[in-house]
Batch of 3 targets.
Target 1
Amino acid sequence: MEETKWTHEQLNVLDALKIGQADKLIRFLLEGGVPNNDFLAVIEKYLEDGDFYWKSSNPKVGRPHSDKWDEWTCIGLYRSKKELLEKYPYKRVIDIEGMMEQSYATNIDDLRKNINRGKNILKSLAERDGMEWASVLLAAPKRGKTK
């Protein structure tokens, strides 16, 4: 039986995998390291177990970007704000936004940014033919006395 030759890089990666670190494996593969058959079998075993982690050398700062604010959601936020302004004509805009902030469980800056994003999307749609519904949504809310 022929003994497989292991390089010191492969042994370092193996030691890192034994303690649950996958970053050395990733670096080894990205730098063009070629694993032998025995090393591939060990890598597959550790990856199937799933008991490893990877620490980024450049971790991101702040919250990850949320995908919950797509274009239709932003249009819906703008529409919701307009409907609340019509429903409560004597409330200040900041009070309406505060109500929305609580109901959507978000902060006021993200809420305003996404409401404005929805408004801008509607403006660009209103300029196109056959998009009258966008112009209707952009119309100023009816405020004042309602019967």
Target 2
Amino acid sequence: MEYRPLPVPPAREPDHTAHEYGASLVHFLLQTRCTAVLSDDDLELASHVSVGLSGLTYAPETAQTVYARLSELRHLIAACLTGRKADRVPEPATCPASAPYRENAGPMAPLLDRPIVRPPSPSYAVPGQGQGGRRDDIAF
């Protein structure tokens, strides 16, 4: 049994804009309906451009067909992206790094670090000096 080769998506030309490349991806998807050869970014770009294409004015006799095919294409892209997202294996959660070893870190360890107590600066210790002066020094 011989399998058909997968279709080759259009290559991105350096002088093409993102919308031009997206339009070529939409054209490729409408012809082949093959999403396996496109990356997630290419599929999202094609979906974005197809929304813009559905806003264009078409002849009344073909407008319904065009809208239906573009809508079907957007559903195909959304289903592919959702399936790819579901197939991804989530990254394992990393454990936070443990604290460095401390002496007496067993069940008898203090729960909180004790605060560092320092004597007040000399300007606050002596009344009438610095910021801790008399009440008359304060201007209202």
Target 3
Amino acid sequence: MPFRQIFSGRQFRVDAYSRDGGRCEIEDFLTVLEHISPSDWRKLVSLIAKIADSGPFENPDLCRKIDESDGIFEVVSPGGTCIVCLLWAGAITVCFGYNEHEGKEQIEPRIARARWMRNEYLREGSHERLSTER
């Protein structure tokens, strides 16, 4: 199973994509981030925990909708580090992280990658349908 639960909040379970061999891209990203920018790491981990408890925020400085129809949003730290997520009924999938200073030309590839992960998640078949209500 390429997706596994990494955290559970009051309202949402938090899942992550795992590659062959069990490596989890978002956990690797956060491990590196913790060493290079502890303040961004603390902020992002805190935001994900809050979202798991209460759902995505309406504050675009912290939580930006990328594609609401596909449930794609990103969590943003003050330092510009972002984590792209998918919203489901009862679950949030943390997909991957990046730094928003990488440039605007990377937006479409990131959306395409999040959609690919969404399709992989749905292909597993044991997950609830996408939730676009907030």
